[in-house]
Every structure is written in structure tokens, then in C-alpha cells.
Amino acid sequence: MATALETLIDHIDRMPADERVALQKQLDEAGVLDQFSVWRPQAGPQTEGYFSKADLTLYGGAAGGGKTDLIAGLALFAHHKAAIFRQSLKSLKGLSERMNALMRQAGMGKISGNPPRWTGPDERLIEFGHLGLPGAEEDWQGRDHDLKAFDEGAQMDPRKIIFVLGWLRTTRRGQRCRGLIATNPPLGGQGDYLSDWFAPWLDPLHPLYGKVQPGEILWAVFIDDGDAIRTVWVDGPEPVEIEGEVRTPKSRTFIPARRQDNRFLGTDYDAQLDQMPEPMRTALKTGDFLAARQDHEWQVIPSDWVDLAFERYDQRIDRDEPMTVLAVDVAQGGKDRTVLQPLHGRRFETNIVRKGTDTKDGADVGSLIIRERRDNAMIVVDCTGGWGGDTVGFLKRENNIPAEKCVFSAQSGESAKDSRIPFYNLRAELYWRLREALHPKSGLGLAIRRSATVKAQLTAHRWKMRNGKILIESKEEIKERLGSSPDEADAIVEALGWKQKAELKKVLRTEAESRMAPLGDPLDGF
After folding, report:
1. E strand or H helix at 254
2. What CA–CA distance (Å, rounded) separates 448 from 300?
3. Between residues 482 and 233, which one has the greater pLDDT?
4. Which residues make beta-bridge pairs with 219?
5. pLDDT-derived band of residue 448, with 50, 70 and 90 as boundaries?
6. Residue 328: predicted pLDDT
7. What percent of the chain has pLDDT over 70?
8. Cβ–Cβ < 8 Å for 70, 149
9. Among the listed ranges 35-44, 302-311, 387-396, which one has the minimum average pLDDT value?
10. Distance between CA 301 and CA 295 in Å, rounded?
11. Which element (helix H / strand E) includes 81?
12. Which of 295-304, 392-401, 511-520 has the highest mean pLDDT?
């Protein structure tokens, strides 16, 4: 006959995972769980992180917030098969040493090997890996774990994290699965993807920013746009149709943690952080994911100038003006995107973005242009590398619609207005002209619709001198650093580059139409 204890244990084993976790939390708060005799999460953010029900959690922010210990505690006491990643294999040493110290106290053996690894009874497993080398993520294809933890995730390639999370699963009954990104704030633009993945908590431009609480559960879907991965936020866990495909949302949350939340670190650690240079010191002490973002000394367009353009858009500058220019950055097939950027007077309206796979040839792109064009606007097509030639041909030959060609690699022949330094090519000229136009003292008052993507792309461009001329980074260089193509920014500079010509053409057309207007009959009315 089963004892009362055996009956209770059997009942707990049969409970749904979420109810069992809730019971475990109650028992822990009462101090009766044996599993925490060696380690227990500290009260506050670490406990919230340990018991969070989110599928993907971003934890941390400030240095000393207990990120390493949370990973160790989850891997040792809450999961059956765990994989823990850092950017390099060498940087795993501190984490594995901390876990070995806990395991010695618990009589669980030790982590050993290269790369480090631990196997326990009942097929328990903890593996360590790195994602720094090209193709490193492919070593983890098909390897199931119920915990995938990324320590200092801001240093990692987001595509590699997404790839590894593809095998976050288990066949063990009642075992929950979770992904955990534990990290300090991004430094120098590194890890900016986190501000998109967890935008409601981190991005001031997101409509939910300031309205959601730390640890609150939200639901989202990752969308692969080819060269970039974006997030679509939805209302709940129910399957939802996005762009013609049914997707199942996963839950996310952000739990901030600071040094003050870690009772094992004292004033000596604070003093150590105070020796850091700014803005790193503020970022690591406060956990502010935006504090360490600082304009690069060779950045073409300052971040503050973009923010001012956003504010002018909100002030409804030129809201009722007709469309002046429609600029097109073409992607025919492949992973890039086709972007159409309308310009109404001084106002850059909401762009139109389509997957490259949906605009496979010139007819596809041309048809999209015809549908979106308004007010006889001038059409400008990026023909760099020949990609836009089919589109221009489709518009001119088959529809008798004129279109201008933009070739970024073409010679410029122009110079900067202030320094009179010549431009290396048309790309340098167009981006520098946008810089000049956005200058607070330019008086042009350009207005750009708020977008975290647009801001990231516009502020990513850097310049240098080559042969006495201003040269802007190539699209490929920016794509490598940003993780995505600056297609939306390219469309903006194209539109601005042809703005003056479009306005002049409109004036000439209006004058011509007035000269052609029939004269009034002087005897009319008699």
C-alpha cells in the first residue's frame, strides 16, 4: 500500500507543468524544498527569472545582477537537458567553475572536457558551446535541449541564436522548455537586435514602451525577411495568420536586474564599475540598454538629428502635400527586400516593403510602383549593379511611364557645401546631402516617420577620406555590421536626391499647361 508521501509525489508528478511550477514556487517560499539546500534564487529579479513562464526571457542589464548564477541554477535544478552558450569557448571558464562549485556541494560530480560537458543519472545532460566562429551554430543542429541559455547574448549573432533555438524541445513528460538570454546592455551598437526582440520594454519608439511591466508576458512571432529577422507582436498564444502563413506565437519577457539585487556583491564591485569609462559605466551600473549607444566619430548622420526629423513628422509637417517622388530600392528574388519610399514635399511617408521573393522580376516591381504611385510623382529606381534595369524597362516600354535611374557607384562631380570636399561617388553625395538637410540649422525641416529600423539604418553609415574625397561605407559593409541591408535608408536618400528635380519638373509642367490653356472668348456672354 502506497504511503501518503508516495501518493503526494505521484500526484505532483501528474500535475500540469504550469501548476507544478506554481506549487514549486510556493514550497520554495516556505523553505521546504531540498533541491535548494545548495542553491536558491535570490529574492527579487533572480527568483522572477527562475520561475518565469516565458518561452524566451531576456534577463539582466546591469553588471553583477546574478546572470551567471541564474543560468547555473536553472541548468542544475530546473532542467533535464541544458545547453549553455557564450561567444567564445575560452569565456566559458568562469561559468563552468561556478557550476562545479555548486555541484561539489551537491555531490553531483563535475563538469569536464573540452568543450565542457556533464552527464548525470537518468540521462541528464549539461553541454557548453560557443557561437563566435562562422558556422559554429551548425554543430547544434538536431540536438534537443529543454534549456538553451545564452550568456552575454548581446555579443552574439541573432541569426545563430534563432537557429539554435530551433531545437528547444523535449520528449520528457512534464518538462518545460525555455530560452534564456542573460546579458549586459549592448555596447557600441553590438546587440542592437535585443531592442527589437524585446521592444515593448527597451525601445522608446514602441507603442507599448512604458506600459508593460518587467516580467510581464507578451506574445510574438519571429518573421524572416531574408537578410533580417523582425518581430510581430500579437495578442495571445493562439495561432495567427501573418503574411498568408499560419504561425504559432511564443511568449517573451524582460526581467531587469542590477548589482543591488545581488546580495553577494558589495561596494567593492560598485567601485570597480565606477572605474569604467563612459558610457560603459552608466550602462553597466544602471542596466540601461540605450545608455551605451553613442554616435561613432565617423558617423554620417547623428542620431539626434534623426530624432528631430521624427518629431517634425509627429507635428504633421506637409501632411496634405501631394506625392513628389517615389524612390525604389529593388530586390528581384533572393533574401533582400524591395522598398518603395514616397516623399510628399518635405515629408517621408510610410514606406512600402515587399519580400524579394514576391518581386521576382521587373514586371512585379513595376506593377507595384504603378499601384503605389500618386499625383504623377517622379519615379526613381536604384539601378546599381543592374538590378533595377528590368523595372525601368517595364515602366518605359510597356507602360510609357518615365523613370529616373540611380546608380550609387556612379561618379558624383559634386562637393560638400561646408568643406567643399568632393564626393567619391553618388552614394557619398546622396547620404551627405541627407546629412546637410537634417542639420538643425539647415532650415529644410525634413520629416521622417518614426521607425526603429530606419533610425538604425540611417545612423549606421560611416564615412572616411579616400584620395581626398568623401567616401561612404558600401552597402555590403553596413549589411555585415548591421545584420541587414540598409534598403530603407537607401530609398530615403534616393527620394531626397531627386526632390529638387521633381519640384522643378512640376513647375515647368504647370507653366506649360498654363500656356496651352485656351484663351477666353471676349464675346462670351453677349
Report:
1. strand 250-257
2. 17
3. 233
4. 234, 251
5. very high
6. 98
7. 82
8. no
9. 35-44
10. 9
11. strand 81-86
12. 392-401
pLDDT digits (tens, 9 = 90+) for 245-277: 999 999 999 998 865 544 544 455 455 545 544
Residue 4 confidence (pLDDT) above 50:
no
pTM equals: 0.63
* 224-237: pLDDT as tens digits: 876 668 899 999 99
For 338-413, where are the alpha helices, taking DSSP H only?
Answer: 362-372, 389-399
Torsion 407-409-410-415 (CA) sign: positive
Distance CA 496, CA 430 (A): 8
Could you tell me the sign of the dihedral formed by the alpha carbons of 103, 104, 109, 110, in that order? positive
Long-range pairs for 1-9 at CB < 8 Å and ≥24 separation? none
Beta bridge partners of 382: 406
Q: Which stretch of DSSP H or E encloses residue 231? A: strand 229-234
CA pair distance 431, 489, nearest whole angstrom:
9
What distance in Å separates the CA atoms of residue 202 and residue 371, rounded to the nearest whole number?
36
The grid cell for 178 is 525555455
The DSSP annotation for 483-511 comes to: SS--HHHHHHHHHHHTHHHHHHHHHHHHH
Residues 6 or more apart from 223 whose CB is under 8 A from it?
229, 230, 231, 232, 242, 243
pLDDT tens track for 377-428: 999 999 998 889 999 999 999 999 999 999 999 999 999 998 999 999 999 9
Q: Could you tell me the three cell numbers for 509? A: 509642367
Please state whether the peptide bond connecting residue 522 to the residue before it is cis, i.e. omega within 30 degrees of 0.
Answer: no
Cα angle, residue 86 at apex, residues 83 and 90 outer, rounded to 5°: 115
Return the H-helix or E-strand segment holding 180: strand 178-183
Please give the radius of gyration of the chain, using alpha carbons only, rounded to the nearest integer.
28
Give the DSSP H or E segment for 448: strand 447-448
What are the structural domains of the chain?
A: 14-286 (3.40.50.300), 303-510 (3.30.420.240)
